[in-house]
Amino acid sequence: MRLTDSIALVGSGDARLTDPYDCNIYAIKSQEGALLIDTGGGGDTELILENARHTFGDVVGALITHAHADHAQGGPELQDRDIPVVAPTPSVPLLTEGTETELGITAAKRDSVYPDDYEYSHYTPDQTATPGSILELGGRQFDIVQIRGHASDHVAYLTEVDGLTACFIGDAVYPDGSISLLNTPGSSLAAYRTDIENLVGRGIDALFTGHGLPRLRDGQDSIDQAADALAGMYTPPSRT
Q1: Cβ 57 vs Cβ 138: under 8 Å
Q2: Inter-residue contact 31 to 23 (CB < 8 Å)
Q3: Quick check: 30 and 137 in contact, CB under 8 A?
Q4: Residue 119 per-residue DSSP state
Q5: pLDDT exceeding 70 applies to what percent of the chain?
Q6: Could you tell me if 204 and 158 are in contact, meaning their C-beta atoms sit under 8 angstroms apart?
Q7: For residue 176, what are the contacts with CB-CB under 8 A and spacing of at least 6?
Q8: Model pLDDT for residues 141-179, shown as the tens digit of each residue
Q9: Is the pLDDT at 239 greater than 90, yes or no?
Q10: pLDDT of 240
Q11: Are 87 and 53 a contacting pair, CB within 8 Å?
């Protein structure tokens, strides 16, 4: 599902484009092939790769925004296909040995989001992305921005594409300015208040969210709305 000349939605549980446990998975055209942002839950990896292949060619790499299962559990299957996975540096302990409680799985099982027999597959990413640095992958540059709050390891990826400043925001902020605060370890309103400032004044055009519909214009307005709400005395609107 092409969204711009160089960006496509290739997986989505919300849209039932792929497995219901998948977040939104985006493919970006690069000089070497398709790059994925997030990998999904691991239940429909072949279809994700096929969708990407039909838009921008073979997938040559993947970046994850955080270690939650719906964003990161496609990683092992990608690695089995010799596709390197890049993860934020703070995600590495969670990906390699995080407990079910730390990963939010315990709470998700309690609330019937995942079945009782669900198991998280630990793995080591092929490369890490340090918040505050620039990552070059497939001939593209990504600004890695720390945006904790939804999760303690969460980052956003900013890149210039099709004349737009695109922000792959994961689960941090949604087009209506709402956030995603969970009652689980690693989710923190204090971290949201601190890190939202990292995205203020960035001139973001397109906001590509981890769930629901992305926003293809005026994405900075969504960020500024969230920042304004986080500066107030009341808990901002939150969605899951």
Answers
A1: no
A2: no
A3: yes
A4: -
A5: 100
A6: yes
A7: 222, 225, 237
A8: 999 999 999 999 999 999 999 999 999 999 999 999 999
A9: no
A10: 74
A11: no
Q: Is 121 left (phi over 0), alpha (psi -120 to 50) or beta?
A: beta
E strands within 64-220?
A: 85-88, 127-129, 134-137, 140-146, 155-161, 164-170, 206-209
Nearest by Cα to 85 from 145, 129, 32, 143: 129
Q: Which two tokens stand for residue 27?
A: 């493919």
Q: In 3-state terms, what secondary structure has residue 155?
A: strand
Q: Which distant-in-sequence residues (6+ apart) come within 8 Å of 204 by Cβ?
A: 158, 165, 166, 167, 219, 220, 223
Characterize the bridge pairing of strands 206-209 and 164-170.
parallel
CA separation for the pair 107, 101 (Å, rounded): 7
Residue 97: predicted pLDDT: 98
pTM reported for the whole predicted model? 0.96
CA 150 vs CA 97, 109, 158, 218: distances in Å: 20, 18, 18, 22
Q: Are strands 164-170 and 155-161 parallel, antiparallel or unpaired?
A: antiparallel
The answer to whether residues 52 and 38 touch, using CB atoms and an 8 Å cutoff, is: no
Nearest to 193 by CA among 235, 135, 145, 131: 235
3-state secondary structure of 198: helix
Positive/negative CA dihedral, 179, 30, 86, 130: negative
